[in-house]
Write a structure and sequence with these properties.
The structure is a single chain. The chain is of the alpha/beta class and about 90 residues long. The protein is about 40% helix and about 25% strand. The protein has a four-stranded parallel beta sheet, sandwiched between helices. The radius of gyration is 12 Å and the shape is globular.
Length: about 90
Amino acid sequence: MSKLRTGVVGVGALGKHHVKWYGRLEHSNLVGFYDTDSQRAAAMAAEHKTTAFDSLEALAENVDCASVVVPTSDHFETARILIEHGVH
């Protein structure tokens, strides 16, 4: 089985755990994540040796699936963009 290219949208209190576990799962290739807080994103990317994408669209173009770990009020818009890019 080939590895899924995985990503995370939002790396706050809960999203950072998604990044950690996607990086450890046998069938996951953690491509990176997107977060609106560029300082938090840079620190997380360095810690987990992965990519902090500059936009949600850039992440969506590089992953097969993603966790949406943003405030509930932003779920629809975030998921809509991922779905439009064919991301599960």
